[in-house]
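Hey,
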Amino acid sequence: MIGKFHELAIPILHHCEQWDGSGYPQKLRGSDIPIESGILGIVVAFDEAYKRNRETVPENAALDETIGQIMEQSGTVLDPMLMWIFRDNEIKREIEQIYNEPGERTCHVSLCVCKESKDI
C-alpha cells in the first residue's frame, strides 16, 4: 500500500518546481522536473487562474483568458513542451466541457493533459 502512495509522492512534491529553476522545494529546472509534476503544476495553475477569471472576466471569455495567461508562463514557470498541448483546439474543447459540468474538475483536466502528453 505504501509503495503506491510513494509513486504519487514525487510528482506531488515537485509540482511547484518551475521550468527556470526558481520554484521549490529543490529548485529543479527544465527536464529535471518529473513530467508528472509538470502536468500537475499546469493543472494547478490553470485551475487557480480559471477560478479567478470566472469572477473577473465575462464567463464566455474566461477559458480563453486563462489559457492565454498560463501560456505566458511557458518556458519560465511551466514546461514549454507540455504547454504546447494547450494550443490544441481539441484539448481546449475538452477542458471547456469539463468546466461546464458540475463536480470535480482538476482531476479531469489533468487526465486530458496526461492523455495528450504521451505523444511527446
